[in-house]
Design brief:
The complex is a heterodimer of chains A (272) and B (263).
Chain A: H1 3-10, E1 16-25, E2 34-42, E3 46-51, H2 57-64, E4 72-77, H3 87-93, E5 96-99, H4 111-117, H5 125-129, H6 135-148, H7 163-176, E6 181-185, H8 193-210, E7 213-218, H9 221-227, E8 230-235, E9 238-246, E10 249-252, E11 256-259, H10 260-267
Parallel strand pairs in A: 3-7, 3-8, 5-6, 6-7
Antiparallel strand pairs in A: 1-2, 1-4, 8-9, 9-10, 10-11
Chain B: H1 3-23, H2 27-44, H3 52-84, H4 91-106, H5 109-120, H6 124-148, H7 152-161, H8 165-177, H9 179-199, H10 208-216, H11 220-254
The chains are: A alpha/beta (272), B mainly alpha (263).
């Protein structure tokens, strides 16, 4: 491996925000969705997880934000164990922006109300019950909406939006959490190629602006290689490959340098 | 048609025949008595038009009672339905509450009206209490069922964000279950107007008091005036609620209005 490249990758960041050590996960305690996966996400990385359906990608994200507890091994978020039952962790969890594959938007609420949800954990429960928000929080929500390009539609009900716009709302809600990590599960999979790239650009802009670490699941190796600087390939619950991406150059941490084309041919699943 | 279906249909007919015999269904009595209906209908057409005014005010009272009862009932059932929803509340809260709500629905509002006449005396107030109680039982059930049927994705996503329970109810549960509320309220009001129209029979106020008394004294011409007012009112309310549904509910739920067939 090229020494200089390894150096440049390690110099991106020094602090790891998410560490997984020999993690296994199971939904029914018989078959394992993830088997002995280790992973280290450093601050500021644009991390992509790629794999076929059912390979365990979504489970990986749920482990990272504590919605699932590993059956074996540890997951550390800022060197802390995620656990939704732990009050201390529940406070810090609002710092993990999470966009599930279903987006989880409240369809009958307005765009602005959906975005405000991201800020609720830091707001007083009683005041927020009466929609009595501090002025600066409302301004913050509007600023974020401007950033994702939905400023004009802040009063529109979510069920009236297009697929791309719904994703922008979900991104805005996650940004409203003032996160340091953004987790997104196949956020562009169901979109056409043009809209998918628009959404990815929105995320990249937001990432630069707020200095985020992004961990995104992709179905499409092409997109992953285009927007990420680290790519992990998951196959049958196993991390089979980890790549570093820098422009056109790709470093396979196991086999050495390859081109994007070669990687794509090797790991992009043929369409059935 | 396959023979299994024939067997089933035959069995249902047999059961109906046996049950009819058991409760004394008598077609001959119906045929012999039919001319009586003709007499009643003929007398009913002899309107005594000086009663229109009384009928109008009695109907207004009925509508007022139904409206107050519906609104009170809805206001009380909203918090109750959250406590009665199995996906939000603890078993020790929802189980007894559901049993209590089921109990209020067990008896029709006219039975509750009899009880409340004993408690607060004759008059519309007893009727309002009866309507309120029945509305609570009914709307709570409809609401906790729509709360239990809400999409679970937003709940999961917002839990991951770290919302408190109160915030979850306010920003996810209520908006997700509310679109059905307006149509439920309209339905309930419609139903309550018809219910309140007969509460007068037990002395709990409203137009039913006149209807039952005129029928008792064989004054079908007077009773007919009051019955006609009820009929017109129910038709008008039905028409208005269709308009409201079209304008607000369909648009809110589907983003478009109903396409009404014109031919």
């Amino acid at each position: 491996m090229d020494v200089q490249n390894t150096a440049s990758f390690s110099s991106i960041a020094t602090l790891s925000v998410i560490q997984m050590r020999n993690v296994s996960a199971s939904y029914d305690s018989k078959s394992f969705v993830l088997k002995n996966v280790s992973m280290n996400v450093e601050r500021g990385t644009n991390y992509a997880i790629v794999g076929a359906s059912g390979s365990g990608k979504s489970t990986l994200l749920k482990l990272m934000n504590g919605m699932m507890i590993p059956s074996d091994g540890v997951v550390l978020y800022n060197y802390q164990k995620p656990d939704l039952k732990n009050k201390q962790y529940k406070k810090s969890i609002s710092k993990i922006g999470y966009i599930p594959q279903t987006l989880g938007l409240v369809k009958n609420s307005s765009v602005l109300d959906n975005v405000m949800i991201g800020g609720l954990p830091r707001l007083n429960s009683i005041n927020s019950f009466f929609k009595n928000f501090p002025k600066e929080e409302i301004q913050h929500a509007h600023d974020i909406l401007k950033l994702v390009g939905l400023h004009e539609k802040s009063n529109r009900k979510v069920h009236m939006l297009s697929g791309g716009e719904k994703r922008r709302v979900a991104i805005a809600r996650a940004l409203m959490q003032n996160p340091d990590i953004l987790l997104a599960d196949e956020i562009v999979s169901e979109l056409d190629a043009v809209t998918a790239r628009e959404i990815m650009t929105v995320i990249r802009d937001a990432q630069k602006k707020f200095n985020l670490t992004a961990i995104m699941i992709h179905h499409d190796m092409n997109l992953a290689l285009e927007y990420a600087n680290r790519v992990a390939v998951i196959k049958d619950g196993d991390k089979v490959l980890e790549l570093g991406v820098e422009g056109e150059k790709i470093i396979d941490f196991q086999t050495g340098d390859m081109t994007k084309k070669e990687i794509w041919e090797m790991y992009n699943e043929p369409k059935k | 048609m396959n023979p299994k279906n024939n067997l089933l249909i035959g069995a249902i007919i047999a059961v109906v025949v046996v049950m009819s015999y058991d409760v004394g269904v008598d077609p001959i009595a119906f045929a012999e008595g039919l001319p009586n209906l003709g007499i009643v209908l003929k007398e009913m057409t002899e309107f005594e038009s000086e009663h229109w005014g009384t009928a109008f005010w009695a109907m207004l009272e009925t509508i007022e009672m139904a409206f107050i009862g519906t609104i009170l009932g809805v206001v009380i059932s909203l918090p109750l339905s959250i406590f009665a929803a199995r996906n939000i509340s603890s078993k020790y809260v929802y189980a007894p509450l559901r049993a209590l709500l089921a109990a209020t629905r067990t008896f029709p509002s006219i039975l509750w009206a009899i009880l409340f006449v004993i408690v607060v005396g004759l008059g519309p107030f007893a009727g309002i209490l009866a309507i309120t109680l029945y509305t609570i039982g009914f709307i709570s059930k409809l609401q906790y069922e729509s709360i239990e049927a809400i999409d679970y994705d937003p709940v999961e996503a917002t839990t991951a964000i770290g919302l408190s329970k109160l915030q979850l109810i306010r920003y996810v549960i209520i908006p997700e279950s509310a679109p059905h509320l307006l149509s439920q309220i309209l339905y309930m009001f419609d139903y309550n107007v018809r219910q309140t129209s007969i509460l007068g029979i037990v002395g709990a106020g409203g137009i039913g008091f006149y209807i039952i008394n005129y029928i008792k004294f064989f004054e079908y011409g007077k009773a007919a005036v009051f019955m006609l007012v009820v009929l017109i009112t129910v038709l008008v309310i039905d028409w208005v609620s269709v308009k409201i549904r079209d304008k607000y509910i369909m648009k809110a739920q589907h983003g478009q209005q109903v396409k009404v067939k014109t031919n």
